[in-house]
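Notebook p. 47: complex prediction with fe (ii) ion.
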Amino acid sequence: MSAPFPNHPQLQGNYAPLRMEADAPDLIVRGELPPELNGALYRIGPNPQYPPRDRNHHWFAGDGMVHGFLFREGRVDYLNRWVRTPKFETERAAGKAMFGTFGNPMTTDQSVVGQDSGLANTNIVFHAGRLMALEEAHPPFELETGTLASKGYWTFGDRMAGNRMTAHPKMDPETGEMLFFGYSTGGYFTDRMTFNVVGPDGAISRADEFKVPYSAMVHDFLVTRDHVVFPILPLTGSLERAMSGQPPFAWEPDQPGWLGVLRRDAPVDDIKWIEIPPCYVFHPMNAYDAGGKIVADVATYEAAPLFPLADGTPGDPEKATAHMARWEIDPAAGTVSETALDDRVAEFPRFDERRAGLDYRHGWFGGVERRNRGDRGNWTEIVHLDLETGRRAIWSDGEAHHVSEPVFVPRMEDAAEGDGWVLFTVFRAEENRSDLVVLDAMNVDQEPVAVCEVPHRIPHGFHGNWVAA
Ligand SMILES: [Fe+2]
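Predicted complex, structure tokens below:
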């Protein structure tokens, strides 16, 4: 018997977990699914199996659940599955949560202290024939494509440096490589990071470790054709704080940020650290080389959201909203300039990833005009930015309907940049249900191409990717 979930804002409404796994073949579709839409959209998010042990539950701390949309010949089948991590299996056998939030040993059941507490809940990517659920403090967890059956941790034949992989690896469309980093790889809250490169054959071709200015939560990074940039921003991690009952991760605005710039053909000893004013970035859109400089478009926060200050008090919510901005990094001069790209509150930026690391024109993100008290941080708009003309187009189904990250799917392999669709889920609170929406990527402000009805709601999640058939 499972106990009721506690009264916690990140376990209510559409943050509440879906407590079942289902198959819904041939969803009802309004409009027409393009026959070229042939493949799968996999999305993932936190979905705690059991009520948490900690009073300080965090949205990021739920077990990963994958939602799969399998498209072929104008139809779409849906299924959802938990990722059966060792933690999931241990807790299923016990019939209750056994691990503290983020594996906190103080609140973990003594019988499992020290055991693997990976959640596999943040992103799901496909590379070299493997579908991998990712979370940033553990190795990838492999699933079977189509069925979403759990296969187990995949550590690249034990050749990866460190045992942690970011949830935001970068796929190089020119070389077929996958590049990724890990943070705190010397143990909890350490100032060590790794940099790994996986060849198109799935084998590790580079595995390095290096020291960073301080221990931080490093969620994502920048990769261009010639460079890789590691952002160390002052959402710091501290074992000392954790042991004294203070927040393990905290926003420390009196620390500067650092961008570690490295040529991809150079050793990690060559990383050049450039100081920037404190800010936080969960997600860049894209980055590219431009005449000796690096251009990076990022969703940047004046102060990190979702985490307290070092003394445990909440930060200023006015500062904890992100906007799209362009960084111009000059590695030779050691400078970074910033210009605004848009005035919407923005998150989950994506683009046509066939242009990853290269100059590009089109981006899409979840937006909202402004944050209101008690709006729980949802996004209600899909925004398209044409970075060449500055034209902005917005799709919204009203303030009550919350959207997920938009994923771009090209019309065909060699279609022009941006010629295709954006796919995302929208939560219909009044029906307690979600839809999967397909928009024409170049005309997001027009009627959807297709709306696919999911019989239940899809909890607010993180990231997803398209895997072509
Ligand atoms: Fe992310």
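Notes: The first strand starts at residue 22 and ends at 24. The CA atoms of residues 371 and 445 lie 22 Å apart.
Next step: compare against the earlier run before touching the bench.
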